[in-house]
Amino acid sequence: MKINLLQAFLIGIIYYLSVNGTPWLSLLGSTVMARPLICGMFVGFVLGNPIQGIIYGAAISLPFLAYISAGGTVPMDPGLAGTLGTALAMASKTTPNVAVTLAVPIGLLGTVIWIMHMTVDISFLHLIDKAAANADYRKADRIQMYLPQIFLLVITVIPAAVVVYFGSGPVAGLLTSLKGVPMHILNVIGGVLPALGIAMILKSINNKNILIYYAIGVILAVYLKLPIIAVSIIGLIIGLLHTQLEFKIVDK
């Protein structure tokens, strides 16, 4: 699949919207857009096959299940992994497992963009201080609203667009040349990485107050053989009931 310039630009926009700190989708929350599944779906729409984008995005999501950004630190970038991983995988028509193998190192490289973003944003604070010292609060508001976003737009859209526009062909050629044992190794690695993400999320819920809900989900899915959508809806209902009861207890 050949990715044209417009598609590459739109994929860059998808990555920009996934970065924590973009205010334009505040109702959804940037953390929702940062999920590889969501990024993969939008990339699929851009490339004309949203179902395929969801399949790749869902596979890439698994290693990032336990991802958390605390105190402004970003150990990896799931938005970049989901966006570029899905785009390059769709362009090269590879398997979801290989897409995971491609996406994980891409996500690690995303930390460079985040560090650059946070470092340069400090200079905008000094401009806001000067505007505030002159009691020019409208200027201060414009600076804090637009300048960081313009800079973030440049350092996210351009690199992502360049990579998918110029890199889709070489990646497809590289994967084609790796057919046989090397490709099997990539598939195996891609199969192990999701297991790591699942293990990390299981470790985080390993306490008596949460693990019981996981056990209920296993019973519903494995023994009662309910579809995953039904299990998800039941989980949502249980979560809402649990939250309501907990707040009532706290109020009392």
From TrEMBL:
Q: Where, by residue number, does the polypeptide cross the bilayer? A: 24-47, 54-76, 96-116, 146-168, 180-202, 211-238
What highest taxon heads this organism's lineage?
A: Bacteria
Keywords (alphabetical) are: Cell membrane, Membrane, Phosphotransferase system, Sugar transport, Transmembrane, Transmembrane helix, Transport
Keyword field contains Coiled coil: no
Sorted alphabetically, the Gene Ontology cellular component annotations on this record are:
plasma membrane
InterPro entries xref list: GatZ_KbaZ_carbometab, PTS_IIC_man
Mode of membrane association = Multi-pass membrane protein
Question: Record's Pfam families?
Answer: EII-Sor
Which subcellular locations apply to this protein?
A: Cell membrane
**GO annotation, biological process:** phosphoenolpyruvate-dependent sugar phosphotransferase system
PANTHER family cross-referenced by the UniProt entry: N-ACETYLGALACTOSAMINE PERMEASE II COMPONENT-RELATED, N-ACETYLGALACTOSAMINE PERMEASE IIC COMPONENT 1
This chain belongs to the protein called PTS Man IIC
Organism of this sequence? Bombilactobacillus mellifer
